[in-house]
Amino acid sequence: TPNDDFCPGLTRKAMGAERAPQSQPCTLRLLVLIPILLSLAASQDWKAERSQDPFEKCMQDPDYEQLLKVVTWGLNRTLKPQRVIVVGAGVAGLVAAKVLSDAGHKVTVLEADNRIGGRIFTYRDQNTGWIGELGAMRMPGSHRILHKLCQRLGLNLTKFTQYDKNTWTEVHQVKLRNYVVEKVPEKLGYALRPQEKGQSPEDIYQMALNQALKDLKALGCRKAMKKFERHTLLEYLLGEGNLSRPAVQLLGDVMSEDGFFYLSFAEALRAHSCLSDRLQYSRIVGGWDLLPRALLSSLSGLVLLNAPVVAMTQGPHDVHVQIDTSPPERNLKVLKADMVLLTASGPAVKRIAFSPPLPRHMQEALRRLHYVPATKVFLSFRRPFWREEHIEGGHSNTDRPSRMIFYPQPREGALLLASYTWSDAAAAFAGLSREEALRLALDDVAALHGPLVRQLWDGTGVVKRWAEDPHSQGGFVVQPPALWQTEKDYWRVPYGRIYFAGEHTAYPHGWVETAVKSALRAAIKINSRKGPASDTEGQGHVHGVAGSPSHDLAKEEGSHPAAQGQFSLQHTTHTRTLY
Ligand SMILES: Cc1cc2nc3c(=O)[nH]c(=O)nc-3n(C[C@H](O)[C@H](O)[C@H](O)COP(=O)(O)OP(=O)(O)OC[C@H]3O[C@@H](n4cnc5c(N)ncnc54)[C@H](O)[C@@H]3O)c2cc1C
């Protein structure tokens, strides 16, 4: 209509004016729009307010904007290409490999497993086509570096529904919708103090942070965080946080904070800055494994699968990396490189023999890394029965063994994340057979949603226990109060020609973006390393291991073990599509 020409971009749907006649004047339409604009402005205010959150400000990485630039534009092209071996094809290894190879370095990635991605692992059901994220599943809006990386790789993101008010909380045999728990948590049977009643669990948690906020203002970030490192979350909540025991128990049961009670309070603050039902999250359309896959296909370098690194020897001019090509015979091969980037998890690094040995402070820092188990159990149903209860995503909480149940969003199928547990809670599934674990999760889903779900279960499901994964040997790092608190710096400084990256080497632990940040930092350092690259040139065969030949990656392309078919060569590409 002519009016539409005067109001470009205003569709009837956007105005919420489905019943408005077409002849409505433009001014009237604008009036309808005002409340929408006001609420939009309010949400922007809210965002601005949040970005001023003193805790968030305190935890901001000073180099965040620099890392964002690297993920956007890449590194400066090198004039002295180096031979770099990256150990591990998780997201940290692949991101570092990509930016380094784009900058002109000769990069080879060695991966112990028979797949890439590490703790990004998407299960794809062959029959239904439904997917389940066995590892990472959501990215907070604040993770701008990860968002940018996905954008650069052409990956589409969509909303991950973290909270749906119609989901359930069931504790002590009392079952309530979460919109009720938000308003009157005391209905769950916790004897809360008067000032704690009528507050949502998140608000109770925020109330407890008041003293910490005062500390932050009085002491400044560095000193306050140092103080917070010394106490557990539990000590803080009951002590300076001044919460009643029932309130703390409520937070443990409803927000799964009990798994974090023994963390240092500083670590808990970092965890909470990324994990809250109040935050907005995204996910990758089509599955998170598209991220490592996209990195792989834009990588100009070799990625060797089934190539576990077992030893490293540093000489004055290079590093010799031994891979075990055919366990259990231990048929070792040696590859040479100018520099190595080690992105394997802490327990996996501990199994690598270093010569000369890692310095004492690094060995101690490795030993102090505290990994918690994380377990996911998916059950496949014939139909998404939760929709009949008006649940369209989000999670229910239960004090039964399954603890947290996450629902697929509409049109995402009926593969239910029937249980997500971490820390001590994951012990409920340890040692069970796959069938026993599926049955245990089914019992809990049936307890929450009724016995009919047993008939709707199609008999299939997946169990992933990360503590039992031979390559990660744990879910993620969460640190209790420690004797020394300088681990972070240890990992940022290379040990000779060996650099470190991965989720455990940066903050906040347990997030994909953290692994990406650590990879970018290491790549910047490697790219700007001063030192004669030519040191290694002209050297031929070195450092054999009993009866096995060595391989110089940069120079012996033809005799590269992959070229000889001794490894399963996942991918080689020289196309550069991004950066
Ligand atoms: C259950 C679960 C849920 C999670 N949910 C989220 C989430 O929702 N959002 C989020 O952002 N993050 C989440 N995370 C965390 C996130 O998945 C990790 O922080 C991130 O994927 C770690 O990447 P990385 O490259 O540091 O380590 P990894 O992914 O572990 O990669 C290390 C690689 O090194 C390989 N390797 C090990 N030893 C050797 C060796 N000797 N030689 C060669 N290769 C070796 C391993 O096989 C692995 O591929 C979750 C993690 C888990 C376990």
Structure write-up:
The structure is a single chain. Helix content is 34%, strand content 19%. It is of the alpha/beta class and 579 residues long. Among the domains are: 183 residues, FAD/NAD(P)-binding domain; 101 residues, Guanine Nucleotide Dissociation Inhibitor, domain 1 (Orthogonal Bundle). A 6-stranded mixed β-sheet has the order 23-14-1-2-10-25, with helices on one face. Strands 15-11-12-13-24 form a 5-stranded mixed β-sheet, with no helix packed on it. A 4-stranded mixed β-sheet has the order 8-7-18-19. The two termini are 44 Å apart. The N terminus and C terminus are likely disordered. Bound molecules: flavin-adenine dinucleotide. Flavin-adenine dinucleotide binds next to helix 6, strand 17 and helix 21. It is an enzyme of class 1 (oxidoreductase). It comes from Rhinopithecus bieti. Belongs to the flavin monoamine oxidase family. FIG1 subfamily.
Average per-residue pLDDT, rounded, comes to 84
Report strand order across the widest sheet: 23-14-1-2-10-25
What top-tier CATH class of the domain at 54-113 and 286-370 and 491-528 fits best? Alpha Beta
CATH topology of the domain at 54-113 and 286-370 and 491-528: FAD/NAD(P)-binding domain
Task: Supply Rg.
Answer: 26 Å
The CATH architecture of the domain at 54-113 and 286-370 and 491-528 can be given as 3-Layer(bba) Sandwich
Write out key terms for the chains shown.
FAD/NAD(P)-binding domain; binds flavin-adenine dinucleotide; 579 residues; Guanine Nucleotide Dissociation Inhibitor, domain 1; Flavin_amine_oxidase; FAD; signal; 21 helices; alpha/beta; disulfide bond; secreted
